[in-house]
C-alpha cells in the first residue's frame, strides 16, 4: 500500500460514445466525470485526439479541453494527446496559448506522433503528405519556440501562445519515443492502456538516457493503464467486458459505440484475435479495492512510475464513477 501513497493519479478520457447516446450526452458525461474526479483529488484530466471513429468523440481535442476546463475549477486539463503531425506547430501554439490565457496554470499539452486514425484519414489531415520523413523532434522544438518569450522578435509569432505557461509531455508506445523524451528533457507518458509490450523497456531507456533541461530536472514517468474497480472482483470483471469488446472491435476494424456488458460478444473472437486482445490489454488492472491494492502496488514498485493515468472504459456511468472513487481511495 505504501507504493500508492506518493503517486499522482489522473484520468484519460476519449469521450467514448456509448450505444444509444447522442454526442451531446457523450460530452455531458465527460464534463460530469471530470467534475467528479476533480473532487476526488485526481491531478489531471486528459483527452485524446482521434479521428473517423464512431465510438470516439474527442477529435476536436482543444475545443473539448476548453469546454471541460470551463466546467471545472482546479483540475489540470489537457491532451493525451494532440497528434502533432496532423497540425502545424503554430496552430497548436495558438490553440493552447488561448487555453492557457483562459485557464491559467491548468493546461497540459501531451504530444504524440501517431495519426490517431486510419491512413486514409491521416492523409487528409496531413494534406496529402505521407510524412515518411516527418521529424517529430523538430516540430516540438518549433512549438517550444512559438510559446517562448524569446520568439517576440521573429516575423511569425503565436498570439495567443507566446509566453504561455504550458507543460509539454511526450507521449509514446515504443522505445523510440522514450529516447526522444529523454533527449529533450521532457516528462514521458507511455500508452500502456493499448500498447503495453515495450512499456518496461521504454521506461528504463527514458530514465537511463534522460538529460536535464530547463523544463525538467529529473525524469518524470507516467503510465496510462486500464483500471476498472468495483465492490467485488466478479463485478469488476463483469464491467470490464465492455472494455474488452471495444478492443476486439478495434482488432476487427469495427469501431462501433461502447456496449453494455450484457451486449458483448467476445466468444466469437478467433484464437488469433484473442491472443492480440490479450497482448493489447496486458496492463489492465481489474478487481476490488483489496485486489487492486496488491496488483497496482506491485506494478508501481516494479515500474517506478511517478504517476498513473487511468483509462476506465465502463458503460454504466454510475459504475464508472464508483470505479474512480475506489481508485482514488487507494492513492490517498
Automatic annotation (TrEMBL):
One example GO MF annotation: oxidoreductase activity, acting on paired donors, with incorporation or reduction of molecular oxygen
Instruction: Provide the protein name.
Output: Luciferase-like monooxygenase
PANTHER family noted in UniProt: LUCIFERASE-LIKE MONOOXYGENASE
The record ties this protein, via InterPro entries, to: Bact_Lucif_Oxidored (IPR050766), CmoO-like (IPR019949), Luciferase-like_dom (IPR011251), Luciferase-like_sf (IPR036661)
Residue intervals of the Luciferase-like domain? 9-253
Q: What is the lineage of its organism?
A: Bacteria, Pseudomonadati, Bacteroidota, Flavobacteriia, Flavobacteriales
Note the NCBIfam families from the entry. Answer: oxido_grp_1 (TIGR03558)
A single Gene Ontology CC term: cytosol
Q: What family does this belong to?
A: To bacterial alkanal monooxygenase alpha and beta chains.
Supply the source organism for this entry: Faecalibacter rhinopitheci
Amino acid at each position: 500500500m505504501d507504493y500508492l501513497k506518493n503517486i499522482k493519479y489522473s484520468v484519460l478520457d476519449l469521450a467514448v460514445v456509448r450505444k444509444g447516446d447522442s454526442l451531446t450526452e457523450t460530452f455531458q458525461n465527460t464534463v460530469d466525470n471530470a467534475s467528479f474526479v476533480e473532487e476526488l483529488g485526481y491531478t489531471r484530466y486528459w483527452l485524446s485526439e482521434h479521428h473517423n471513429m464512431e465510438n470516439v468523440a474527442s477529435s476536436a481535442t482543444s475545443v473539448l479541453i476548453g469546454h471541460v476546463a470551463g466546467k471545472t475549477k482546479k483540475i489540470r486539463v489537457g491532451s493525451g494527446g494532440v497528434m502533432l503531425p496532423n497540425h502545424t506547430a503554430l496552430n497548436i501554439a495558438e490553440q493552447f496559448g488561448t487555453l492557457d490565457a483562459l485557464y491559467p496554470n491548468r493546461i497540459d499539452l501531451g504530444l504524440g506522433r501517431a495519426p490517431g486514425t486510419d491512413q486514409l484519414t491521416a492523409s487528409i489531415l496531413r494534406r496529402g503528405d505521407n510524412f515518411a520523413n516527418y521529424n517529430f523532434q523538430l516540430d516540438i522544438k518549433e512549438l517550444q519556440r512559438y510559446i517562448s518569450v524569446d520568439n517576440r522578435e521573429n516575423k511569425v509569432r503565436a498570439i495567443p501562445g507566446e509566453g504561455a505557461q504550458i507543460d509539454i509531455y511526450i507521449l509514446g508506445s515504443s522505445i523510440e519515443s522514450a529516447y526522444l523524451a529523454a533527449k529533450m528533457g521532457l516528462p514521458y507518458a507511455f500508452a500502456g492502456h493499448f500498447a503495453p509490450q515495450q512499456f518496461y523497456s521504454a521506461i528504463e531507456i527514458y530514465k537511463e538516457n534522460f538529460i536535464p533541461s530547463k523544463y525538467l530536472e529529473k525524469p518524470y514517468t507516467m503510465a496510462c493503464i486500464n483500471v476498472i474497480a468495483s465492490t467485488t472482483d466478479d463485478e469488476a470483471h463483469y464491467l470490464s467486458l465492455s472494455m474488452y469488446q471495444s478492443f476486439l472491435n478495434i482488432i476487427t476494424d469495427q469501431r462501433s459505440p461502447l456496449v453494455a456488458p450484457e451486449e458483448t460478444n467476445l466468444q466469437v473472437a478467433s484464437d488469433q484475435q484473442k491472443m492480440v486482445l490479450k497482448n493489447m490489454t496486458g496492463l489492465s488492472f481489474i478487481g476490488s479495492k483489496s485486489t487492486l491494492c496488491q496488483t497496482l502496488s506491485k506494478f508501481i514498485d516494479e515500474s517506478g512510475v511517478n504517476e498513473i493515468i487511468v483509462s476506465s472504459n465502463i458503460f454504466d456511468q454510475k459504475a464508472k464513477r464508483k470505479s474512480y472513487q475506489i481508485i482514488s481511495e487507494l492513492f490517498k
